[in-house]
Amino acid sequence: MRYVSPELHQKRAEAGRKGGYATFFKHGREQMRDWAKMGGRPGNITLAEARDRQSSLEQKEIEIRRNRLTAGNSLRTLTGMLKIKIKEGELAVNVPLRSPEGASRC
Length: 106
Fold this sequence. Notes:
The protein is mostly helical. The chain has helices at residues 6-27, 29-38, 47-70, 75-88.
């Protein structure tokens, strides 16, 4: 934002107030309320749209990570592949996948 002298700032603020009052007297309280409810400039998105867009992007990112980790396979398929590799001896498993009840994981 550019620097504006205090005098110029005051002049612009006063012009804005006068313009706001003129618009209010021309269109009335109800129209001003309707405009306020619409909010923002016509090209801007609403808060709800921004939230939807953000959640959509987050879901896409989660899906990309999941596909990168699993190569698009389901958990059942990955478990089956793991069992086959263990059975064929390609994968040595020394640590149990699930700890016994009551055992601490320190």
